[in-house]
Amino acid sequence: MDNLGVTPAEFQRFFDRLKTEVAAGNRKALANMVHYPLGVGGSEIKVFTRADFLTHYDSIFTPSVVAAVRDQAYETLFVRDTGAAFGDGLLWVSGSCMDSGCARRALKVIAVNPPDDERTVQPPTAVRPSAGKDVLLGNSLPEGAPGSSGPCRELPPVTGSITVAGSVPPDDVHCYRLVGHSGQTVHIELKSLNTGFTIEPLADNRSDLTFKAKNQPYDILLGQTLRSVSDDYYEMRVTVR
């Protein structure tokens, strides 16, 4: 429990409340107990917001997931450094950072992994609106020349800000290439549970970085900090001034 950033008493209260709300099918209460973006294993469902969660609730909390939470005994929880598993990994709970320095954490549902035969696959959307900005799906961007970790997807010319969204598996790396120009100031902000980015030689495993660009390409490598049991969803915002 120390690794999750909470006390056993705090976890017991969250455990009891989660079982109660799941059994009651209280989706609005459960939306407040979820970390966003939420990982939904084996599915194309993207859950970046509370509205996304409520829209896809029945495809996330499937009958098997509901039964796993309902029947889970506190004494037989599997707990490791990255979280606690309900029903042999159908649902994971962990302490989520509530500030930039992770000095304050709160328990949240971080991943749900419905069984294969209960998953509802949603077709991906090329562009989706978020807070007035276009959010590009990373896999919709064209591939350019390979980088140090394989093919890099080319970011479009940035004037102002763009946001790229995707999900990175535990043993994979996503690469995005930004073409810089002298005089530009670049700011990169990554929102995720378990993913950091590296730009050699500027940064290693960061979630936030500002730098002065030169006339050269920059490869932004995204990978999970701690290998998780499911894909980790992220939103990366790139701002160029």
Mind sketching the topology for me?
Blueprint (H helix, E strand, L loop, with lengths): L7 H17 L2 H5 L2 E7 L9 H6 L1 H4 L2 H9 L6 E3 L2 E4 L4 E7 L7 E8 L14 E4 L2 E5 L5 E5 L2 E5 L5 E9 L5 E6 L5 E8 L2 E5 L3 E4 L1 E5 L4 E8 L7 E9 L1
Parallel strand pairs: 1-5, 7-10, 9-11
Antiparallel strand pairs: 2-3, 3-4, 4-5, 6-7, 8-9, 10-17, 11-16, 12-15, 12-17, 13-14, 13-16
Considering the chains and any ligands shown, give keywords for the structure.
single chain; 241 residues; alpha+beta; 6-stranded mixed β-sheet; 17 strands; 17% helix; elongated
Structural summary, described in words:
By secondary structure, this protein is α+β, with helices and mostly antiparallel strands. Helix content is 17%, strand content 42%. The protein has helices spanning 8-24, 27-31, 50-55, 57-60, 63-71; strands at residues 34-40, 78-80, 83-86, 91-97, 105-112, 127-130, 133-137, 143-147, 150-154, 160-168, 174-179, 185-192, 195-199, 203-206, 208-212, 217-224, 232-240. It has a 6-stranded mixed β-sheet, with no helix packed on it. A 6-stranded mixed β-sheet has the order 8-9-11-16-13-14, with no helix packed on it. Strand 8 (143-147) and strand 9 (150-154) form a beta hairpin. Helix 1 (8-24) packs across helix 5. The chain is elongated. Mean pLDDT is 86; it is low at 121-133.
